[in-house]
Amino acid sequence: MRRKASLILLAFAVFFTALSPLMRWYAFPRLAKIPPSQYQTMVLEAKPATLVDYGTMKPKKVDRLTIVQTLKGNVEESEKIERSADRDVVVWDAQTYVEGPDKKMVSRIPERYIFDAHSQDPVHATGESADGHPVKREGIEFKWPFLTEKRDYTYFDARTRTSAPIHYKGEQTFRGVDVYYFEQTVPWTKVDFPSVMPVKGINPKTLEKESGTTMWYTTVRKFWVEPTTGAPVYGEEEHKEEMRGGTLIGEGRDKVTAFSGHVKMREDFIESTVDLVKSQRVLVLLLTGYLPWGFLVLGAGLLALSLVLEARSRRPGDPPADPDRSPKPEPAAV
Where are the domains positioned within the chain? Predict the structure, then answer.
């Protein structure tokens, strides 16, 4: 009986030991994915900020500038792309909407971001765009990969429509969460006017050619990223835009500040983001740590128990059976 039990335990030991690497290297890449229908809204603020008054073409101080960033999963488009990409794809229709203290629009920049659901690698397909312009992204945007590493990544900037390194700066703790801090500086770069302007009658596509005025942009981008999920729990930008030269800004001036402000996540969205990331972190750890190591320890324990039962089943201390001591048959009576 003990020998039979030891064989059963040995079979379970082999099963759980084999299951351990399968959870990490087979199940994790297939189960840890961004859902294609994900919808997320983030609100950031710059308090105070500087905006250009298009009536006077002079900069003015405002108490608050609000940026609403929306990420909406486009399930229909992702299914179309998956047929040819041969992998799970997420399509985010994103929008960055900026409004002043009077609730009037300052700018609106739409994007379509297409990427691998697990690795976050960009997937190039028809419709990939930034502010109405076709783009071919390199690197990440909005989110880091699962199990983020302590290294620099390539990050896409929607305003310049280019990619550049975002540098790993070290480990920190943010609201009780261990995070990696990343920072990217985009130097002054000539960019297009936003495709949607707050002033009616202005055609952004011809404005530079007609007026000779150009738009310039720089920012220092900062992210605090929870490494297990790859999700930023907090972000900031020191953002500046200027209009330079031409007839639009008037005579006697070579530049006008179009926007300047230190943009930060709003407090209520910080709290909800931290809570969400903490819960998602546990799910990822189940696939990458808790279950693989748990199965390995369980397999080792079952193997040890199997060997103990096998050793006891043999009972080496008992004397071997003596065939001479077995009862002899008695002669039959006549």
Answer: 1-31+287-315, 32-265
